[in-house]
Amino acid sequence: MNRKAPLSQIFSRAVILHRDHPSIDALRRQLELLHIEVVTVWPQLDEAHATADVVFFDADMGHDGQFPWPAGYAPMPMIALIGTEAPGRVQWALAQGSNAHLLKPIGSTGAYSALLIARHAWDMARSQADDIRALEDRLRQRPVVVRAVLKLIQSEGLDEAGAWKRMRRIAMDWSMSIEETAEAICRDERRLKGGL
Amino acid sequence: MARDTVPVSVLYSSTGSYAAYGRDAAAGAMAAISEINADASLPFLLKARVSDPGGHAERYAQMAKEAAVQDGCRHIIGCITSWSRKDVLPVVERHDGQLWYAFPYEGYEANERVIYLGPCPNQHLLPLFGHVQPRFGNRAFFVGSNYIWGWEVSRIARELVEGDGGRVLSDRFVPLGSIEVDHLIREIATLKPGFVLTNLVGASAAAFIAAYGTFRAETPEAPPLVACNLTEIDLETLSPAARAGHIATSTYFHRLETPENRAFKARMLARHGQQRRLSAAFVAGYTGVSVLARAMVDAGTDEPAAIRKVVTSRAFETPLGALTIDARNQHAALVPHLALSDRDGAFDIFESAAAPIDADPYLVRSLPRVGPVVIGTPSLRVIK
Question: How far apart are CA A72 and CA A151, in angstroms?
């Protein structure tokens, strides 16, 4: 989370997915104190709610099909409102992609730290997912790299270390990753030929 | 000498979708209050504030608060569903109160402001399945009311079945109060499970058992129904054929043959008529009030901290036998019984625990440990 951004810029709209309840009145008070605009919805979110900055959801009476996105793919941080600490319910909340939780009954504290923790966890999860995707791409391209090295050995008469050195130089010159370079070598790109 | 009057709240739904339990529980509480008030040796009289939330969970908190603020009730004898209990917790916490909760529930709670007199899963589901699994195999069908009781009991039951190499053929939920059950019967007829666990409550349970009776009349090989919350009350309105042959666990059945219950029944039937059948719900209300009253005698006050101290430090004579309450989790140690229902809608006990079983509300001591626990759906796999 960008610590320099004030909370009001990170969270300006919250959706609470819960029936009317004194705990929800208390949560609303806490959020409005933080200048967050609050909408309460039950039993289902629709696509218009996808623009909210955070979703608080009932883990006790919650059920599948309440969210307009697949479980675990919420476009914003999610905070579970837990009254029943039964494993089945906690498991369900986790499956929805809960990033933090608040225990019911809700009083006059807790929302602020839950917001910060949820946003941090959500940011971390997103950046890790990006990293994993990039690494998976590179993993997928590994055979191409091997093919490119073999090609350089054969066509340029280099040994393995020399082929690697050549490939790294091309990657640096053209500001590409090793994998992209390898793909280009395999495609026989002219600009590379010129550079070889 | 004039006796002090101490107000207590009796908070059961005697109308709504599970009204039959609520009426019995309230009747049990009132019977205990009458006995206490008739005992001139006691230094106090109990004055009941009876409220009926009508089965609406959201009314419980309001009524509990009114009892505390308007009448000064420190003790609430009440709640049947977990949903309502959860809503009363903030009120007893805020108003220095104590809830006496005496119904079977799904566990995962140990609130200082609650005395738990009903069984949790290691005192109901585990003994029931200890009997059912070896006899009726491991092809299970679950049906329950669509709230935390149904969900969590079914989840634990699934762990037991799958942990034993069995399969849950289907796991169905019905909205609280719904009596649409025909699709369940059709599915049971098709899947032919070894047994059916029902976690239905109130009107749904009655409708399901009635429909199951019709199905069974045409299907002699129909599997048994088993339940942790099936009582004489649920069978009352059904035909004799539909009532018989179900296996239930409870800490109380009318026919419980113990000196304590014989004495209790003699007193209650003298009051309510010889035809009256006592249920676990009636005993729930009765036990809550009578343990509270005797703790008040010892403590010399109804102040909840003092009551908790007394309640968790000695045994109390109850219709269930001598009852002790664990100071760590405030749950009663209980003797689960297993019983088979007959055409009269009563239960014959065929097995009882040899000694009271301590409550294990978080199931940390009662289940065999099997490898690392996976929380949530595992989404990453190691690919070699």
Answer: 43
